[in-house]
Amino acid sequence: MGETSGQTISKVVLAYSGGLDTSVILRWLQETYRCEVVTFTADLGQGEEVEPAREKARLLGVREIFIDDLRDEFVRDFVFPMFRANALYEGTYLLGTSIARPLISKRQIEIAEQVGADAVAHGATGKGNDQVRFELAYYALKPDIKVIAPWREWTLGSRTALLDYAEKHQIPIRKDKRGEPPYSTDANLLHISYEGKALEDPWVEPDEDMFTRSVAPEQAPDRPTYVEIDFERGDPVAVDGERLPPAALLARLNELAGANGIGRLDLVENRFVGMKSRGVYETPGGTIWQMAHRALESLTLDRGAMHLKDELMPRYAELVYNGFWFSPERLALQALVDQTQDRVTGTARLKLFKGAASVVGRKSPNSLYRLDYVTFEEDQVYSQADAEGFIKLNALRLRLARMAQA
């Protein structure tokens, strides 16, 4: 049994992908802490087989191996609430990586309690946001949990050092690892991110062959695609009239948007730890989902509620980005957001064409849009003469201020 900060470690649950980093971490934990390692691999719809992680963990001497399909829980309990808030970090980022971390952490803590582990470990580096997201969630859910973050402890400071360690300890490595793409990726059903190496110069355009979830807009079909998304109380429930469970619905939106070159984002963002980083993201389905949701809100939400929600959205997005999903303030904001969604039921119709999506129709049984009030034709319900008093009252403070300056 090993120790961390003077505390004995007998069993640790590792968030394990089966890739180079976490495979090295697995062996390093066994050697450094002399403890039993339990692996947990989450299927969040990353598009790769997760079962090979089981055999790799067995080869490395792991006895308790958890591989969980969390796709529907991910979309239903994490992506749905976030999209009700229309959350965008720094005005553009749909938070695809950020929103996956609290679910992975939650399940990791559940497994730790189930198997009697006294520690959890992750493969996030000491420079990034993910270490913060994982650990804030761990502590929020299990305040006394011990956390091991190897990247903050070991001396393996480079990719070459990891490869050398893997060879020395006979850890299986994918044959393409030495010639891997010049970026790191993180993927789930909502998005895929690309960072590092060739992308570290924010002036350099990404190579087209890097992208995996969308065609280049120039290569998209020459005819537009129309899609209708049905919502019930703020959540999407059907695409083109077909009701689908959460994960299948998002997968369908990904297919439709990706085929039309929609959902790419090249962003320089502010990390929580203080530095700026450049990331490239593909979020095809999420891009059109949010657009459709806002279209329905424009019909169904009162102006005051809608504007308040928009004012609070940057704060909500920042909480998700920084790892405070389980914080009291995020839960309080979520309650407010969810209260506004009772009327957000109906259908939005979008036109997808060569990298662009636009709303071309929206309808709702709860619509606040009244043709008899807004028509430019003659009506019997609105007296235009009333506007004169409305304007004069709103102008009163402006007139007083100008008179005071005279």
**How big is the Rg?**
25 Å
CATH superfamily of the largest domain: Argininosuccinate synthetase, chain A, domain 2
Major pleated sheet: 5 strands, parallel
Give the neighbour order of strands across the main sheet: 5-4-3-6-7
Order of helices and strands: EEEHEHEHHEHEHEEEEEHEEHHHEEHH
pLDDT averaged residue by residue? 93
Q: In which range does the helix fraction lie?
A: 25-40%
CATH topology of the largest domain: Argininosuccinate synthetase, chain A, domain 2
Low-confidence stretches: none
Taking the alpha carbons of the first and last residues, their distance comes to 82 Å
Number of domains: 3
Second-tier CATH architecture of the largest domain = Alpha-Beta Complex
Strand content: 15-25%
Number of strands: 16
> Looking at the structure, what is the overall shape?
elongated
CATH class group of the largest domain? Alpha Beta
Number of helices: 12
Q: Structural class of the secondary elements?
A: alpha/beta
